[in-house]
From TrEMBL, chain A:
Keywords: Cell membrane, Membrane, Transmembrane, Transmembrane helix. InterPro entries: ABC_transp_permease. It comes from Acidiphilium rubrum. GO terms for molecular function: transmembrane transporter activity. It is a multi-pass membrane protein. It is found in: Cell membrane. GO terms for cellular component: plasma membrane. This is Monosaccharide ABC transporter membrane protein, CUT2 family. The keyword Protein transport does not apply.
UniProtKB/TrEMBL annotation, chain B:
It comes from Acidiphilium rubrum. This is Monosaccharide ABC transporter membrane protein, CUT2 family. It comes from the Bacteria. It holds the Pfam family BPD_transp_2. It is found in: Cell membrane. Keywords: Cell membrane, Membrane, Transmembrane, Transmembrane helix. The chain crosses the membrane at residues 20-45, 57-79, 110-132, 139-157, 177-194, 225-244, 256-273, 280-301, 307-328. Signal peptide: none annotated. InterPro entries: ABC_transp_permease.
From TrEMBL, chain C:
Gene3D superfamilies: P-loop containing nucleotide triphosphate hydrolases. Keywords: ATP-binding, Nucleotide-binding, Repeat, Sugar transport, Transport. InterPro entries: AAA+_ATPase, ABC_carbohydrate_import_ATPase, ABC_transporter-like_ATP-bd, ABC_transporter-like_CS, P-loop_NTPase. This is Monosaccharide ABC transporter ATP-binding protein, CUT2 family. GO terms for molecular function: ATP binding; ATP hydrolysis activity. Residues 10-244, 251-498 form the ABC transporter domain. PROSITE patterns: ABC_TRANSPORTER_1, ABC_TRANSPORTER_2. Transmembrane segments: none annotated. It holds the Pfam family ABC_tran.
Amino acid sequence: MNKFKTMAPESRRVLYAIAAAVALFLLGQAVHPGFLGLASVESILVIASFVGLVAAGQCFVILIGGIDLSVPWVLNAGAIVLTTTSLGLESRAPIAIVAALAMGIVVGAINGAGVAIFGIPAVVMTLAMNGIIEGLVLGLTGGFTCSACSSYAPPFVQALAHDSLLGVPDALLLWLVVIVLVTLALNITRFGRATYALGNNPRAAVLAGIDARGMTIMLYAASGFFAALAGILLVGFGGQASLGMGDPYLFTSIAAVVIGGVNILGGRGHYLGVAAGAVSLTVLVSVLLALNMPDYVRSIAYGVVILGLLLAYGRERET
Amino acid sequence: MQPDTTADALPRGNRLGHLIAQNIGLILAGAILLIAIVAFILIYGIEQQRLPGNFELTSTVNSAVPLAFAAVGQCFVVLTKGIDLSVGGVVDLANAMAAVTMGKSLTSGLVWSVVILMVGAACGLVNGLLVALGRLQPIVVTLGTLSIYQGLAIRVLPEPGGAIPPSFTNFLVNPNAPYALIFIVLLALAWSAFRRSRAGVDLYAIGNDEAAARALGVNILRTKIIAYMLDGTLAAAAGLFLAASATAGDATTGNSYTLSSIVAVVLGGVSLFGGRGSAIGAIAGALITTLIVNILFFGHVNPLFQSFYEGVFLLIAVVVGGVIGGTIRRRPK
Amino acid sequence: MLATPAVAAIAARSVSKSFGGVKALISASIAISPGSVHALVGENGAGKSTLIKILGGRITPDAGSVTIDGEPAHSGIAASRRHGIGTVFQELTLLPFMTVAENLLLGREPRGRFGLIDRAAMPDVAERELAALGITHIDPRALTADIALAERQIIEIARVILAKPRILLLDEPTSALVEREVAWLFGQIRALRDGGTGIVFTSHRWGEIAAIADRITIFRNGSDVGCFDSIDEDEAITLMTGRQLEALFPVRTPAPAKPPVLTLRGVRAEGIAPLDLALSSGEILGIGGLAGHGHRSLFFGLFGAPGFTQGEIKQDGRAIRIRSPRDAIRAGIALVPEDRKSEGLFLPLKIRDNLTLPILARLSRFGAIRRGAERSLVDDTIAQLAIRTPSPSQPVGVLSGGNQQKVLLGRWLLTKARILLLYDVTRGVDVATKHEIYDLVAKLAREGYAILFYSSDAEELAHLCHRVLVMRRGAFVADLPGADLTAEAIVSAAMRESAHAA
Amino acid sequence: APKKFKIALSNSYIGNEWRIEMVNLFKAALEMEPYKSQVEGSYFNSGNNVSQESQQISGMIAERVDAILVDAASPTGLNGIIQQAHARGILVISFDNVVTTPAAIKVNTDQFKFGETLATWVAKKIGGQGNVIMVTGVAGTTVNEQRNKGAESVWQKHPGIKIVNRYAGDWDSATAEKNTAAILPSLPKIDGIWCQGGTDGVLKAFIAAKRTPLPPTAGEAENGFRKFMLGYMGQKVDGLSIGQPPYLVLVALELARRILNKTYPRRDITIPFPFVTDATVKAGQTVFPQMTDSFFTDFTDSGPNAVVKVGVNAALHGTPGPGTLTVHLPKV
Ligand SMILES: Nc1ncnc2c1ncn2[C@@H]1O[C@H](COP(=O)(O)OP(=O)(O)OP(=O)(O)O)[C@@H](O)[C@H]1O
Ligand SMILES: Nc1ncnc2c1ncn2[C@@H]1O[C@H](COP(=O)(O)OP(=O)(O)OP(=O)(O)O)[C@@H](O)[C@H]1O
Ligand SMILES: [Mg+2]
Ligand SMILES: [Mg+2]
């Protein structure tokens, strides 16, 4: 308990975020018996993993005071690159996955370059990029995600989203790996130190020899990577890519990051909290769906619960 | 006995240089707007073999008015170093209420307008209280309230419909003359009065450095609440204009104003880091955004590539603006 | 001096204040008589600023009371203003993207038609008001972000003085000021005091305390430990620190005659004329002169932030290019900037993270930091520099200013840089820590570091440096050898030239 | 040569395959007789943004087109500008997502009947008894409301049917699948599915949750859903599939041409919606096993009373078919 008190506020928020996710699960069980069943929990966590992956990238850029509004169409483009490159063939899965991820990295790096080198505000750069990718995808494919494919995601990718290993869905295992890797990257590597330094005080970071441009480009590239990765998994999940499939992930990924206790102005927060935030939001949506209420009530309740959670533990200290 | 420091006075930068430094954002917005106007007239002229006339002016102005109001509202909040994602929700709510309540006469339209503006202010008040008193980050507060306001809007108007009195439409967005320019001018005048008020100065102070502003005795709570309430009121006004030009209501059409108001504010040279910029710039930004749509229309771009061009234009505008700005600022003093 | 009236202009009785777990004030008391200057002295973190913030109504004490003219004071900035209190806070409260005039007139802007603020008139009003205070070198139309730190501090002071306060609280108002500006400030203070204003003044420069204080209260660990009409420096330091200090400045050792490690030829940057300069290892080369005359451009130019626009830099005889701080760090150059909060430290991050940031490449394998190696380096540095902290995991922001400064110095020593650019490193640092920093600087020089040392404190330059170059209008106007250098010589070199200009 | 009619298509949104097919059909038609020689066409997209679409329609007015075909971002949001177009003598025909103003002629299917038909089929299939889920569309839209009302009118007549959950699928397979996956594990056994859109996504979520065999399903005309009717992913489903036909645009185009030629009165047209069941579904005609699940199979019509017949390449690539294009408008 004493340790809890002396914890940095950001670390404490990670615990709060996890507690919130658990509480929402319990709430779900209370209002809708069966909600806490193994299948139900598993299924919800798999859906949360998509949000969680996008939010990993979003978390990186938010940690340096940026934001990535291009995730919807980078995700979508990742999905479409996968289907159009793989043509649904298992043999082409590796190259298709690499192509999709490379696309995400390149687009993200361009975002980063726009922000770091040309000094374009992140909101504008990434919003414009979202439009640019959308236009390119629609224009280049003629609007069809893969008209020549007999099947869409290669079986390997579909298995990734649907199969289990030792009773744990593969998608969840993948997310778990990502959680571990991102947490390690942020906490025990040079890269992580530089990220927090940049997010806390960019001027001082540059004066301490941090390559701010390189880091910024790298972090946005990571965001592109994770958006594309989520796109790949979503194709596996649904079996196909569809236009607009990334749209729900914009605000949700930002919300997950903030509910997870990351400061939107940068420099403070942990991915573990973000992962909990992603779970919270997904559970919340599921509970609201399960409650069988009119759309407008659901919309209002969603907002009220998010604000309630934030009021409970997301308050800033007085300046 | 006072050892004065005058003997060593350094040469000063000239007044023009200072003026440019202080208004750099506004100057850029003006430059981009000018470029956009010229580009529009050129493209229109080439495509249509004539110059844009009254109709084009009127429809452009009428399209720009709701966005101008939403953008100025957004500008208040951005100046405090905040951001408002609930603009779209408030526009929806106002739009929906207008369609349901106004009935047939101009009088009832105007009376209800006042009520709706007050509802907008109340929405802003909720945002402001959560941000200032609840000490929550504006982006998530307004993400939450966006969902709430949209829900309320759908509750008010479950499916598109209702009606706006034609007299009310003619009052706000007369389709035959660019008469809505008056509202833009009024908006700009109101802004410059606000800019010269206690609250206006305090708003900038908060955006510059909130801790310093607090130490200087600025009432942070009051000022932020004023900013968010004005924002909510103006977003509601945008909803009224939208309803008026549509002549009916739809609880979902306002959504696009969230992002487009932010884009307009940025194009208008207002810093997302707070404390710098002007609502006049935001108005210019709204006009630029509107003109880009026109340019793309008359440029007959492939609709599939439309968002590509929008994105590219946005980047070009911001980069060119930045380059011009950099050149002006680096000009030898 | 006026006789001390029975009723204090402002007094604090047994005030306590904690921030989280930190007890900033423990039952501290002070009473300021009208028409007197009351100095608060104490080490960094002794609680001076906290007390001033309480007196100024910016924060409320957890316990204890504040009285004004014997009456209980209302808390809050607005109330304090009504009480006639004016405060210059230690961290400047100027608004960077507003003009000097807007800052100066904040809250009392001239009104025009319809009671609206007459923005057009503001620069002229500000210009007149500044001129009345004898300030004519600062353009009221400039953005505050564009003027030098010293100028900002002067504007901050002017803003408060212009409100004609009955009680004036000055928290380290001179930290960025050079002597002549300090003299100007003291003139203002004396005038106000003679008009009956009760004044609180803090500074870490003993000379200033001795010159201006009518009474001195000494703070230690959050409590007042003594109040004197006069006290000598050694005694005061003993009370502040609980131990005795030897001479403030270390014994000067002669500069070794070695070939220069660093030579600049014809370097230019914004605000500096082509400059030539040579720095040897083991040398402490002082740079002096009035604020705003190009020192910053010289130091930051050498550090590549941004680099010089022209000219040649040679290190050990070889030409090098420094276009970014990374280039500079690679070349073994370190910069300790004046504003440690905005340009040096990451306040919410751990001491450890702050210390090792530039050397992580050395400390990590495959990108992962070797914790053990880092830990021992950090512990060594903390011990070597005597950084007072319970643990290297503390956020650097909770340390006292002097210890923060030591962390910053430690960071650069860890880089094994041999050329140190120290830019006003003792700004806002308490006497004891200054003493430690001086010792450290002298020791580093003896160990062969080459040190370029700028200070706004001429005493410091005079006593510490082997040689001092005085800058004016971006050029070196005097080269003063160190043997029997005095502060007066530096100041007058900086002033003499201005006589010509005027 | 006689002057060509300028006809512009204002399409609010191009982000799903239905809209893409619709635009492609329009493009193809412009290359086919009689339109090739009589119509000069253009088409625009407004990113689902009402004010942009409104501005584009202003542009069309400025370009002095003869007719505007509108698939609207909002049933009401364009009323103002459409009234202006009408006042300037421009023929405005709205289709699919139709507008409410009388200044526009409407071409559509009956959305209430859509929901009602789906529900009637489900009710009959499960014998008026059992648990049913409703997967709805985008909240706040007329189409969603009408389809839901149509369904509710049927449920009222069947007290034995329990609607165990209503949730939004937003007419999008990915959303429908995600939401179904989230909620399904905690629901009791489902006997029937009523789905406005994204039907294949719902079924995939059922398979993932091992809720097989799949219950009888009434849904939209996604290719994926119809594949399930044929047998897909190891499942064969009893289903009714109704499509909002993309060729509504061709009906609108033909109507515009005929009205401008003064060979047809100005009046609204409601066309019957094409539908298939597991009994009638036919590969290559009403389902395309080679194509994506999200492809919209009802780009063309079939049978003796077909409204219009076009080839799959017209829908896919906008390439014209051979010969002339005949669109059958209802007899006057
Ligand atoms: N807002 C705060 N939050 C946490 N700790 C604080 C805060 N303000 C002051 N402190 C702590 O309270 C103690 C007293 O600080 P204060 O600023 O009053 O010292 P000071 O005497 O003014 O020091 P200096 O000479 O360095 O200005 C220090 O330990 C400081 O770290
Ligand atoms: N010769 C000059 N002519 C015009 N402007 C000058 C000149 N020298 C310096 N300045 C201006 O004065 C400002 C401060 O310059 P700079 O920061 O280099 O001086 P400094 O001595 O390092 O300041 P400080 O001592 O306050 O830290 C800059 O804006 C610079 O442009
Ligand atoms: Mg202090
Ligand atoms: Mg200086």
